[in-house]
Design brief:
Length: about 350
């Protein structure tokens, strides 16, 4: 190949070395092969769709849809999550982004893909909306609760204030009448509860639109992540899981990635959220937070728990490839349930 030749093609084995180099150059990241393969080739639903632009022997742009299916009223919909879109600085303005995306969508549709979705950054958002027929659905909401005040008061005063925060949460937990029941238990483990498959399948049936979740997905996403560690806080009633909260500790922050309740029972979820907060206070965490969107359950839960709220930096967008009831439902924000764990950054 001539050093100045330019072309586009689908990923083939061995291209990952150039992809990782481009990723680390564009995003100033430290992506490694293990993490890359986990995300794009070990997903339980299958391999990702990846298209690349070349200038001579070097990869200069990528458009990728990570295989990530959607749930539509309990039915699994083949779909992809757009992520790691990148164009080398000296190659911008050549139209690589839209050309690669167009090729990518055509191939994905041949494999049955009915939609693409994602959380675009400021660089990719305009092109997706203007040229690729994506629609902006909503910004996620941001909820947070301060566990400590180390940066404000530091040292011993922070320890005292954290004690009173814990005391306040314990009091609120005692006042919740559900807490007085004797037929439940709450656990925190590094493994997903064994009955989670039945649990999330039931959740799928009453969600209108969400990321498809089953036991294989949760194990891949959280238990098998090559770098991050997650905790599973679960509430069981008579030995049966009714609610799971999944958290990730990042420096002094505890990020809630998933809030899953079999029947969206507020009192059950609130008592497990209190448990999660108390568990987090016993670490060095200063803040516990959550980014998410649904038709009101999240907002009611965090209001009851007295979290503060704001607008998240994450914007959820997408595009349906269909012309049917799924397509009619897709653009309506209140049909969606989306959590921080659905992004590719948590």
């Amino acid at each position: 190949m001539n050093r100045n030749d330019e072309n586009m093609r689908e990923y083939t084995e061995g291209d990952e070395k150039g992809i990782i180099k481009l990723h680390n150059d564009v995003f100033l990241s430290d992506l490694d092969v293990h993490r890359w393969k986990w995300q794009f080739f070990e997903h339980p639903k299958g391999k990702s769709w990846i298209h690349l632009a070349w200038s001579g022997p070097e990869i200069v742009a990528q458009y990728c849809m990570m295989r990530n299916h959607l749930n539509f009223n309990g039915n699994e919909i083949t779909a992809g999550q757009s992520c790691d879109t990148m164009v080398r600085m000296d190659q911008r303005g050549k139209g690589w982004f839209t050309k690669l995306a167009g090729m990518n969508y055509e191939v994905a549709k041949q494999y049955g893909a009915q939609a693409v979705f994602g959380f675009p950054n400021r660089n990719s958002y305009p092109g997706l909306i203007r040229h690729l027929n994506w629609i902006r659905l909503f910004n996620l909401k941001y909820y947070y609760y301060r566990l400590g005040y180390e940066k404000v008061v530091g040292g011993r005063a922070n320890v005292v204030l954290r004690y009173f925060v814990k005391l306040k949460i314990e009091l609120e937990r005692q006042l919740n009448f559900f807490y007085r029941r004797k037929d439940y238990e709450m656990l925190t483990t590094e493994k997903i509860p064994l009955d989670a498959d039945d649990f999330v399948n039931e959740i799928n049936t009453y969600e209108v639109l969400s990321v498809w979740k089953d036991l294989a997905y949760l194990k891949w996403r959280y238990e098998n992540h090559p770098h991050n560690k997650y905790l599973f806080h679960s509430l069981k009633i008579q030995g049966k899981s009714e609610c799971i909260i999944i958290t990730k500790v990042n420096n002094n922050n505890v990020h809630i990635c998933e809030i899953l309740n079999r029947t969206k029972n507020l009192l059950q979820t609130l008592i497990l959220l209190y448990h999660t907060i108390v568990f987090s206070i016993n670490t060095q965490a200063q803040i516990i937070d959550f980014h998410g969107h649904d038709n009101g359950f999240f907002n009611s839960l965090f209001q009851l728990a007295k979290f503060k709220n704001g607008i998240s930096n994450y914007v959820f967008c997408g595009r349906s490839f269909q012309d049917n009831r799924f397509n009619d439902t897709f653009p309506l924000p209140n049909n969606w349930t989306i959590s921080l764990g659905d992004t590719d950054v948590a």
